[in-house]
Design goal:
Elements lengths: L2 H4 L6 H32 L5 H12 L2 H11 L3 H26 L1 H7 L1 H12 L11 H19 L21 E2 L2 E2 H29 L1 H8 L52 E6 L6 E4 H6 L2 E9 L10 E10 H7 L13 E6 L4 E5 H4 L6 E6 L2 E2 L9 E3 L13 E7 L22 E6 L9 E10 L5 E8 L4 E3 L1 E2 L9 E9 L2 E11 L21 E7 L1
Parallel strand pairs: 3-12
Antiparallel strand pairs: 1-2, 3-4, 5-6, 6-9, 7-8, 7-12, 9-10, 9-11, 13-14, 14-18, 15-16, 15-19, 17-18, 19-20
Helix pairs in contact: 2-5, 2-8, 2-9, 3-5, 3-7, 5-6, 6-8, 7-8
Length: about 550
């Protein structure tokens, strides 16, 4: 055997071409699978699509620390980032699978079915799954993708080494090189891409059309005048300093933190709320119109997300209209634990399967816990729970603020752990006393002289009695409080700082009406909310 014979064979240009085009075929097959699945999901329900189902499953299984990091880092865009990440992984998988199929046609094409298995399993495993039909989008998409990859690989140049005479051979009819009809492959690939794009666009359009009834039902809602109106906001409830959050947070700016990759669009005409469980003597199922016919209350309430870091943005204030929840529970025969009731936990269930557990004692202790129907003078936006959501002043949202609610079950904390409790969050979580500097912003460079330092403080259901500012390591100076709207809303404050040149650290702390001073001890959000003092560093010029 000669030295030349011992030299390992290098892949030919045809082999590289086949692998590259196979990868392209895999990408097209993956796109077709997703497009067909999207179209099928429009006929079943949008939440059954593979990207949404797999994304929701990923959220459910993501460690709490990672979820918390995602919310801190990406804010309201965390779901978009997740979906883009899923698509990126699918893209790499499709490219690799296509290249593999170029060598092993049947096995590679069959590998596309993995898409279907994963997507179907994720869809069927969701708590809001409606049955086996939820698996159809992923299954149909995988079949379409596998068939397309099999066809495209069959149109690739044949495997094997080129002969000198094969290089560059072309026929006038087919531009064939070495037995390969390039034109047929280009036509098939182009047609597949166009069909996939069309199916995807049609699927999105049909999914949007599926929510038209819900959109129409919201437009048709006219909220009756509340029987119990909120007091007028005091004229001096705002400090009048540029840069401070507005007293009422516009609906479009109100924070949104939830696990829904697809915002549920529920038709108010078909919506139902079931109330049942331990200590419920008279089970009830209510319609949206049933709630509208009840006496409505109007209240200003500040909501806070437990994922809000010290100085963070996940807090907002709105004027809510709804039905007093305690009245409804009492009509069903529910008693507080302190009055001998057997249930100490109210579990609220959302249409998307979310469960939120609230202490029955807090819900029924006289605070304005409600089933909210309106927000800032209009029916609830879909992002914030239309047609009905729950609110309990003084509790973090994850233990009180169930959006798109459809069921209330009375049970005990020992008998059931709600969604977030299963993921290491505390069972009970009253909002901690917190304050925030809104202006000046971190690393601002104000001019020397009087600089207005201002912000907000909150301790829902207790109220804010005092806010203090400290410059560097100096003494605490009391800030001027704006007028209080209610103990369930945040309170603005301001401090006229005689600023001197140089770098300075501004720190704020609040004292609530119970006399509790906001703690300096810095903790993360898990398990029951962040704590610590907010500070900003500025340079006075």
């Amino acid at each position: 055997m000669s030295d030349h014979d011992k030299t390992p064979r290098q892949p030919s240009a045809r082999t590289w071409t086949r692998l590259g085009l196979g990868a392209l075929g895999g990408l097209l097959a993956g796109g077709a699978a997703l497009a067909v699945a999207e179209l099928a999901a429009a006929a079943v329900r949008p939440q059954s699509g593979p990207v949404v189902a797999v994304g929701a499953a990923a959220i459910d299984r993501t460690p709490t620390a990672v979820k918390d990091w995602a919310i801190r880092t990406f804010g309201a865009d965390d779901k978009l980032v997740l979906q883009l990440g899923i698509l990126a992984v699918l893209t790499l998988f499709a490219l690799a699978l296509g290249a593999f199929a170029a060598r092993h046609r049947r096995t590679g094409a069959a590998g596309v079915l993995v898409f279907g298995v994963v997507g179907a399993a994720a869809a069927l495993g969701r708590p809001d799954s409606t049955g086996v039909t939820d698996a159809l989008p992923s299954v149909l998409g995988a079949i379409a993708g596998a068939a397309l990859l099999y066809v495209l690989v069959g149109l690739l140049p044949p495997a094997g080494r080129e002969t000198p005479g094969e290089r560059g051979e072309q026929t006038e009819q087919g531009e064939q090189g070495g037995g390969w009809d390039r034109r047929r492959f280009v036509i098939a690939a182009t047609a597949a891409a166009a069909a996939s794009a069309g199916a995807g666009v049609l699927g999105r359009a049909l999914s949007g059309a599926g929510g038209r009834e819900a959109v129409a039902s919201r437009k048709n809602v006219t909220l009756p005048p509340p029987g119990s109106r909120a007091p007028a906001v005091p004229r001096r409830a705002q400090v009048g300093v540029d840069g401070v959050s507005s007293f009422f947070t516009p609906n479009s700016d109100f924070y949104r933190v939830d696990t829904a990759l697809v915002v549920p669009k529920v038709d108010a005409a078909t919506w139902r709320l079931r109330v049942h469980g331990d200590g419920v003597d008279r089970e009830r199922t209510l319609t949206f119109d049933d709630l509208l016919r009840r006496e409505l209350i109007e209240r200003d309430i500040t909501l806070t997300c437990v994922s809000n870091e010290v100085g963070g943005p996940y807090v907002g204030n709105a004027r809510w209209i709804g039905v007093r929840l305690a009245d409804l529970l009492e009509e069903c025969g529910v008693r507080r634990p302190s009055q001998g009731g057997p249930a100490d936990q109210l579990v609220a269930r959302s249409v998307d399967g979310m469960t939120i557990g609230s202490p029955v004692e807090d819900v029924m202790d006289g605070r304005d816990a409600m089933l909210a129907l309106g927000m800032n003078g209009e029916p609830l936006p879909f992002d914030h729970g239309f047609p009905v959501r729950m609110l309990v002043p003084g509790l973090y949202g994850y233990v009180s603020a169930c959006k798109w609610i459809e069921e209330i079950e009375l049970t005990t904390f020992d008998a059931y752990d709600a969604y977030w409790v299963k993921r290491d969050w505390a069972r009970e979580a009253p909002v901690k006393t917190q304050s925030r500097i809104d202006t000046p912003k971190p690393f601002a460079r104000p001019k020397g002289g009087t600089v207005m330092v201002a912000g907000v403080a909150w301790a829902q259901h207790r109220g804010i009695d005092k806010v203090e500012i400290r410059v560097d390591d100096g003494p605490w100076r009391e800030a001027t409080l704006a007028a209080e709207d209610s103990r369930d809303t945040w309170r603005q404050w301001s401090y006229a700082w005689p600023a001197t040149k140089g770098g300075h650290t501004l720190t704020v702390r609040a004292t609530d009406r119970t006399g509790e001073v906001q703690t300096e001890r810095r903790t993360r959000t898990v398990p029951d909310g962040a704590s610590g003092w907010h500070s900003v560093v500025v340079t006075v010029e």
